[in-house]
Amino acid sequence: MGRHPLSLVMVVLAIMLLPYGYTWKEYRIRRSIDLSAANPLISDTKLPTDLVPSGYSLHLHPVLDRSIFSGRVNITLLCAKATNQINLHAHHDLTVDELELEVVRIGGAEGGTKVPIRRVDRVPKKPLLVIYFHDALTAGAAYEVRLRFVGNIWENVEGIFEGKYKQQQQQSTGPSEPAGTESEGVTEPEEHSFIGTYFRPHHARRVFPCFDEPSYKVPFNVSIVRPRTHHVLFNTALERTVDTGDGKHVIDVFKQTAPMSTFTFGFLVSDLQQVTPSLSDEKEDERLKPTIRVWARRDFQKNVADVQQRVKLALRKLQEYWGVPLPLEKLDVVALPGFSYVKPADNWGLIVFKESELMRGYYNLAQELVYQWLGSWITPHWWSDAHVNKAIAGFLSADTAIKIDGGDEFEGKYPMTILYSIYYEFSKRYPHSRITAMKQETTCSKTELVLRMLNYTLGEATFRRGLQRFIQHREYKTFYGEDVWEALTKQAHLDQRLCESVTVNDVVNSWITKDRIPMVRVVRSYANRTATVTQRLYLRERPHDVPEQDKMLWWIPLVVVRQDRLSFGNVSTIRWMKQVREVTLDELPGPDEFIIVNPEEIGPFPVNYDERNWNLLATFLQKEESRTLIPVYTRAKLLHDAWNLAYAGDLSFGTAFNMTLFMKYERNHLVWNPVFTLIDHIGRHIDMSAVHKKFEMYVRTLLTPLYEELVGNQQESEEMWKANLRSLAKNFLCRAGYKPCIEEAQRAFKKWMDSPDPDAGNPVANQFICPVFKWGTREEWEFGLQRVINFPESRVKSERTYLLKTLAGCPSQPFKIDRLLNIMVLEDNGNFTDNDISLIFKMLSGGSSGYSTLFNFLKNNWDAIKLRFKDRESLWDNMINSATGLFTTQEGYDMVSQLYVQHQGEFGTAEHIIEKSLKNIKEETKWSDENLPVIEQWLDHFLASNGVADQKFLG
Fold it and tell me: Terminal CA-to-CA distance of the chain, rounded, Å?
């Protein structure tokens, strides 16, 4: 058997799992407020406040067949302070006709008087248009700026964008073509075009000169030219249509908007059709506001037939929550074909979705509806408050979906999806160091979890009334993040949910101002029935040398569930750790009964216990009659916390492994998901040790009954989570050598090998390729290699990439990997690009078979490789990193150290890489020395008392 069949699960994990075994975060993270785009705007210089807009009169003429638009805008301004200039946002792609530009003083004795302009400047490298005057504008006076402009329509979705889709044309059957023929009523698909807008967060300036900042909320009067074949959807309802006289176009004039920010402005010119409402819907529409209209291409209407009802239901729930109706006359919801943006365009009164996002569930719909209240109606004053806005929207959207149908679309994963990812990111030594664009998203996710914590600890009624208090009297105005916390504080004091000396601001700021989370440790004094509770920074990554960690303290709610009063519904008994290091809990149960702190993940923090309390929990969970008394989220939390605390060095691995014993009986996918991450993490760390064989046997014993039961009970109409869990268990077992899986994979692979033209396409499902390349013959692996070498240019490149990944990442036999490296590096085969070679190096770092073979290849062919990579520094650096950076034992350290000494001064650009590798290996070796004996002792005891079905496995 290879040294590490389980580490190669990383091939699958990279596709299927986040660090803690969830995929829903990938689905939900890219929502309408793009924090990665908004964050750079926080430091933007704001426009001068000498002049304040009071309204826009805007006329736009988009030309579909020429990808351009023209227009004119009149901006009314109030001069708050005497100034000799007007500053407007105008993107450099926007051409402004400076000769036609006018500024007129309006109102008063001098109303309608033109103001002489000295000059007009476009500021280099800034999207600003500055109008200078000979004399200062008068404070208190009103002015109107009149501008004409021309711009381009792009295929991307910033500003005005264009798109196309094809739709089958329907026609009645003619007399010369009898019914029943293949072409009955069908012609060639016809291409349709549309033009839309995406102004978030600051793209209105690409379309017309304006005050493109969220705090400026004023009414718009808008008219838009359209072809007679199309219609226009806008923020407000159509008021009238005017003929242009050319026979091809008309002008739609819309009702004046309410005061709104430029980023909520939006329109869509298309020939999409309104989804016909049912009779009951039409009767309801007469009574309810806003009127809901759903639009889609004709071929897609059946797919969105229920959207109107779902929007109404979500809207009703949100109106009940906010306590105020949405002040809109109409709300258009559009399923836009070919919409390439990852986020819906949620304009005031007009929401544009990708077609796929309207197919199921309530979360997407609810989130965009929340933004109608909290974003359009009430708006963050500046980009720095966008994360609070998005966090509230995320929390309320999930809450709405759960109240409507139990959150079926989440499959129970909310909030565990974002919670575990937060745990993973903020427990690094350097959070966000690898993906800096994620910082705003993770901060927002943490704020959402803090809101959830407040909803529990303040009580749902108080929390809801606090948010209602927040939006009161802010209609069409702006807010700061602090306003939310102050409103919740006032309500919490009024309802006596917080003492007068405590504010929600204090609690929240202790969480969202740090890129960290705490870990709580509970050590019981069983004789005294007390416990000492301490808090400190939670770190998984070693070494634990974060600066100033001793100064970090949080406001932490302590909710305790005890075995003698096992109730998870009452969270009102709370004691706060008020940014103190230690508190004492009194009146706890007897020495034979456990306690659970922070059940149901009320707060986003892991909890550690003394060994006795952990073992009491482990014993309780192994009893079938008592295990289900602890809810799923809490069972998952206990398992997750125990494992990750052990990984971090805060808990004995023996105790952590004890917490997995109840998995023999567990069948809920939410509890199982952390187990797969457990298997992968420990597998990688003990990859090169003698303990690994025993760990493999443990994993086989753990997963085989689960998988075989899921297969035996498989049904066509089963829940999606069962299929996902079965697939995940199968993938892990396949790579562990599960014979039924390997044989199935080889049968499927043989069909490809026997095909007359194997390069024409791949008839084998991806799930079968890795097991064959790992456990199969040299001939099967060589067949895969030839398919990569002979891959036709006409085929999809991603298929070749997947083959290349599995060729390198799956085998455990060194001869396969050596063959690949010789061809790519030493022979410099022209079929492999530098990107291919980099990809192979990356895949080989997934397990000891890969990186140890790569290391030996480097050591044995040093001079030849140096010559090959002489002018390819990036490849050289990647190779040194993958070949030296993953060892975890003293043996590995000695190997890398010897290479370093032998070739001192020859590493070039990779000198710092191997030095870092040696430092990391020393840390991992320390981890191994401390933990491997404990792990081996536990595994020996487990395997001695549990039958292992090794006859079902290869190796």
Answer: 4
Q: What's the pLDDT at 946?
A: 82
CA dihedral 314, 330, 160, 103 (to 10 degrees): -130
Residue 329 reports pLDDT greater than 50 = yes
260 bridge partner residues: 218
- Within 10 angstroms of residue 813's Cβ, the number of other Cβ atoms is 16
Name residues whose C-beta falls within 8 Å of residue 677's C-beta, 6 or more positions apart in sequence.
Answer: 17, 19, 20, 21, 643
- Residues of the chain with pLDDT > 90, as a percent, come to 67
What are the two backbone dihedrals, phi and then psi, of residue 219, each rounded to the nearest 5 degrees? -75, 155
Question: ω into residue 415 within 30 of 0, thus cis?
Answer: yes
Q: What is the pLDDT of residue 429?
A: 83
562-597: burial string, b at 16+ Cβ within 10 Å, e else? ebeeeeeeebeeeebbeeeeebebeebbeeebbbbb
Average of per-residue pLDDT values in the chain = 88
Q: Does the pLDDT at position 36 exceed 70?
A: no
- What is the Cα–Cα distance from 110 to 141, expressed in whole angstroms? 10
Contact assessment for residue 47 and residue 87, using Cβ atoms and an 8 Å cutoff:
yes
> Quick check: helix, strand or coil at residue 336?
strand
| Cα–Cα dist 174/182, whole Å | 13
CB atoms within 10 A of CB 627: 15
Q: Report, as an integer, the average pLDDT of 201-220.
A: 96
Q: pLDDT value at position 433?
A: 63
| Residue 920 identity (one-letter amino acid) | N
Confirm if 362 and 409 have CB atoms less than 8 A apart.
yes
Look-up: residue for tokens 């009146």?
A: 587
8 Å CB contact between 734 and 679: no
Confidence of residue 28 (pLDDT cuts 50, 70, 90): very low
Give per-residue pLDDT as tens, 785-815.
Answer: 999 999 999 999 999 999 999 999 999 899 9
Alpha helix segments (H runs only) across 265-330 = 279-287, 307-322
Residue 930, classed as helix, strand or coil, is helix
**What is the DSSP secondary-structure string of 815-878?**
HHHHHHHIIIIIS--TTS-HHHHHHHHHHHTTSHHHHHHHHHHHHHTHHHHHHHTTT-HHHHHH
In angstroms, rounded to a whole number, what is the distance separating the alpha carbons of residues 463 and 888?
48
Q: Does residue 719 have a pLDDT over 70?
A: yes
- How many Å apart are CA 720 and CA 671, to the nearest integer? 16
With a cut of 80, say whether residue 279 has pLDDT above it.
Answer: no
Strands (E) in 571-716, as ranges, are 574-578, 582-585, 595-597, 607-609
Could you give the CA distance from residue 355 to residue 428 in angstroms, rounded to a whole number? 38
Q: How far apart are CA 455 and CA 561, in angstroms?
A: 18
Distance CA 275, CA 656 (A): 55
Helix residue ranges per DSSP H, 720-760? 720-735, 739-753
Residue 558's identity, in one-letter code, is L
